Amino acid sequence: MNWIDYNSKLGISFDDEQKFELLKNKIHNLLYYIGTELTPSDYRNSSFIDYFVMIGYKTNLLNIKGVIESMEYVDSLSDLISRYTAFSITSQKHFSNKVVISIIRDFLPKELENLHIQYEALDDEQGWFIIPKGAKELDDALVSQPLEWLKEYPKAHKTFCIALKQYADGEYIRDTADNLRKALEEFLQEFLGNEKKLETNKTEICKYLGVQNVDAGISGLFHPLINAYKNLNDKTAKHKDAVDKKLLEFLLYQTGLLIRMVITIKKEET
Fold first, then answer.
1. Half-sphere exposure of 20 toward its Cβ, with a 13 Å CA cutoff?
2. Which range of residues forms the domain containing residue 158?
3. What does DSSP say about strands 119-124 and 127-132: parallel, antiparallel, or unpaired?
4. Would you put residue 11 in left (φ > 0), alpha (ψ -120 to 50) or beta?
5. pLDDT for 20-63, tens place per residue?
6. Same domain for 177 and 137?
7. Do 24 and 117 form a contact (C-beta atoms < 8 A)?
């Protein structure tokens, strides 16, 4: 049982500000521990310089103490997460101590969950993603796993990553929705081995699913989703670029759902 859950059983709750302070304190303690474990042979000085250049922080302490200082006075959860993520990225690039790298990389996803902070941290070859957290079952099944499975389909994987980054950055705009559509289009092209447009390949993928004895009512889900992409693009093109966050989340989950369905069926082919 973690600290938040233990206190919850005692009838003590934590508001968002207290969770933010708890996370900041945990990061502070972790970085001091990292400082005691690292030796000069474990890192290159450029690792710290890269970090400070990345976040644009001015300091004379170009070492782990400077990293601690840079996170000491942030006043928002998003800034804290951003700076820790930058440190994790640069440490993976420059540190040689694999145990320390693993501790740094695994810390944030675990603590966001332990503190019940409504963000999820995903680590992928394309970089880190910090996305608003929905239901864990949905995020695991419809975001994390499709992201992992798409590695076999590199074009779609790259575009899905771009859409995720935009969504994570709060870019609730037409481009984000269009990248979700493009990711699905590229996935079907790579999966079916052709260069056809999404509107054409929706028929081809339904044929494939039919051969695999998938109910027509299920495979037919491609049609309304593709129509939703088109209608959204038409609407935002005529009016404004902003997209409702709830609608974008729906498109994100639906895109992951259809990709997951196709790959799962492919894995079960006899």
1. 14
2. 132-267
3. antiparallel
4. left
5. 888 999 999 999 998 888 887 777 767 788 889 888 888 888 88
6. yes
7. no
Q: What is the DSSP string of 190-206?
A: HHHTS---HHHHHHHHH
Q: What is the pLDDT of residue 136?
A: 60
Residues 12 and 42 in one domain: yes
- pLDDT (tens digit, 9 = 90+) per residue, 166-217? 887 777 777 888 888 899 999 999 999 999 998 888 888 888 888 888 888 8
Are 83 and 137 within one domain? Answer: no
- What are 199's two structure tokens? 């509107």
Q: Which of 191, 215, 195, 217 is nearest to 205 (CA)?
A: 191
What is the pTM (predicted TM-score) of this model?
0.59
- Give me 151's structure tokens: 């590695």
* Residue-wise pLDDT tens digits, 96-115: 888 888 898 889 888 888 88
Six-digit token pair at 34?
């990292």
Do the domain assignments include residue 61? yes
148 and 88 in a common domain: no
Looking at the structure of the chain, the number of domains it has is 2
- Residues 186, 66: one domain? no
